[in-house]
User: What shape does this take?
Amino acid sequence: MREIVDGVFEISLGYVHAHLVVTDTGVVLVDTGLPGRSAEFGKGLREIRRTIGDVTAILLTHRHPDHVGGLAELRRRSGARVVAHRLDAPAIEGAPAPSLTPLQRLLAKVMKPAEAAPVDEMLSADGATSVPGFTAVHTPGHTAGHVSYLLDRAGGVLFAGDAAAGNGRKVRRSPGVMTEDRAEADQSLRRLAALDFEVVVFGHGKAVTDGAADKFRTLIN
Ligand SMILES: [Zn+2]
Ligand SMILES: [Zn+2]
Assistant: This one.
């Protein structure tokens, strides 16, 4: 587990990251990684002398199995409140995914699906969430209900999920083959580029720890 900035930790689960944030009101997880890998969270929590019972909220960026894979088990074991956008919530709760790209249809045949889990709080508008310090920004395109979260810490920490990806010290678009609506995804990148934040972490690729919003501006221009 790597500390990106004060109290914000990155857990790498193969090719995908999840994040763990220590706050005054408990530990907050942003995404939950791949199915069958939730032991990594226990290990990460032990490293910072916390337990699963300290996790009070799980913020989800979107419904893809590499982000909600550990959700059912982590929710069960922690009793944490689960937050997701209302457009991605049905698939997280077990409804068939509303749309899959051809590559995702292929992957769905070979990949272990995520166990369904209830969403306790459905987001439908931008703004403050029930988790202190976290603001939701609806960033559709990769999925219709993709949400990025902005944490008020260290000049602003953006949890971009798969709205974008890390690329060395730069920011790149998520692969088009995994994106539902590329025009909408670009519109979302413009929204993020208009915000102020110093740090960005991703579902995939390396975090950027300074001047992060500028990297989004460079990408869209
Ligand atoms: Zn995704
Ligand atoms: Zn992903």
Q: What stands out?
A: The chain has a mean pLDDT of 95. The pocket of zinc ion (ligand 2) is lined by residues 16, 64, 66-67, 162, 203-204 (CB under 6 Å).
